[in-house]
Amino acid sequence: MSSTALLANPLVLKNGTTIKNRFAKSAMSETLGTMDNRVTPALATLYSTWADGGCGLLITGNVMVDRQHIGEPQNVALEDDRDMPLLKAWAEAGKRHATQHWVQLNHPGKQVPKLISSATVAPSAIPFKKELRGMFGTPRALSEPEILDIIQRFATSAALCKQAGFTGVQIHGAHGYLVSQFLSPHHNQRTDQWGGSLENRMRFVISIYHAIRAATGDDFNIGIKLNSADFQRGGFTEEESLTVIETLAGLGIDLVEISGGNYESPAMAGGENDVRDSTRAREAYFLTFAEQVRKRVDVPLMVTGGFRTAAGMEEALASGATDLIGLARPLVVEPDLPKRILGGEAAVSAVRPIKTGIKAIDKMALMEVSWYTRQITRMGKGKPPRQHDRGLLSLAEVLAVMTSRGVRTRLRA
Fold first, then answer.
1. What is the reported pLDDT for 409?
2. Whole-angstrom distance between the N-terminal and C-terminal Cα of the chain?
3. pLDDT at res. 371
4. What gap in Å lies between CA 174 and CA 246, rounded to an integer?
5. In 304-316, which positions are buried (b, 16+ CB within 10 angstroms) versus exposed (e)?
6. Are the C-beta atoms of 59 and 27 separated by less than 8 Å?
7. Is the pLDDT of residue 271 over 50?
8. Of 3, 16, 12, 5, which Cα lies nearest the Cα of 218?
9. pTM score, two decimals?
10. Which one, 88, 153, 261, 345, has the greatest CB density within 10 A?
11. Structure-model confidence comparison of residues 388 and 199, the more confident one
């Protein structure tokens, strides 16, 4: 099979769902909801652009299951059917050209900036490391009734997604959000059935999976985004991640996306300058871990982070380490990249490190993420994204928007 054919080859999941090619858009927070976290027409505009760009699978940015607990201003929160017409339009836009369109469901736990809320929750009342305590408050430990309520919220949101016409959901179990917090012995120091041993710490995500499956049926796709590790002392380890994946695979999870890190150790936002030579040679950040997963389970895998060239993507598929090529930032600056590659172009992503000339700022994951979010906003308005940042001007633009949104969100609360 030729290299182009590898990328164009459909992937059939175990439940019979066909993903038309091996390109998948990984979740990126769009922040295109209203200030009270409702769906807007901009989301349909954005996802029609990405569907036209040629991906086989589109996964939305994190949709929150509780309007009282959002990670960023203007996240969409999905608790009821009040926005069903707009939700259906969003689903249909992403399904153009026989594209699979899944919603990423999330609860931020304690990973909420103080500018938005000081009343955060988590498995345990563990503060962030000293450097981040000015930005994030110490959370309150969840009670068991609250844990059970959150589990049901994931199921309710998933059922609403199915009703709207989305073809699946993804549980966000990575990057330091609530599911990830429960899995980590650093963040989860409970002594009840929800903490302690790995069996107890993964009870939360297993319960969420069961609840969603019961609410949506066997033919609805359920995936998970999971850390390979937290890259934090005393945190979630690679061996624990392998055990969680094995358990979910045995229960029937349809797709596992591999990522890593959290806000305190942001491997998921890894700057291009911080990549190891061995990783740079293979492009993707988590391929080595994916190879370990492949030895233990046959669940379909998606690896996201670092892919920049058609050749690197083709090599990853040929190795058998991954089934889907997860793309995030490359699709922000070039939403038609998959279509061009499938058309035979030896494309190289236009993604480059953002440079303001201020070392402390340039090393912050927040600046990188925020700049790309601004380009997503442009696409939501029907405008083309900028392919390159504008240094200090980009920084000023990002800070102004973040401050304005944060203050308005806090006032609304």
1. 60
2. 56
3. 81
4. 16
5. bbbbbebebbbbb
6. yes
7. no
8. 16
9. 0.91
10. 261
11. 199
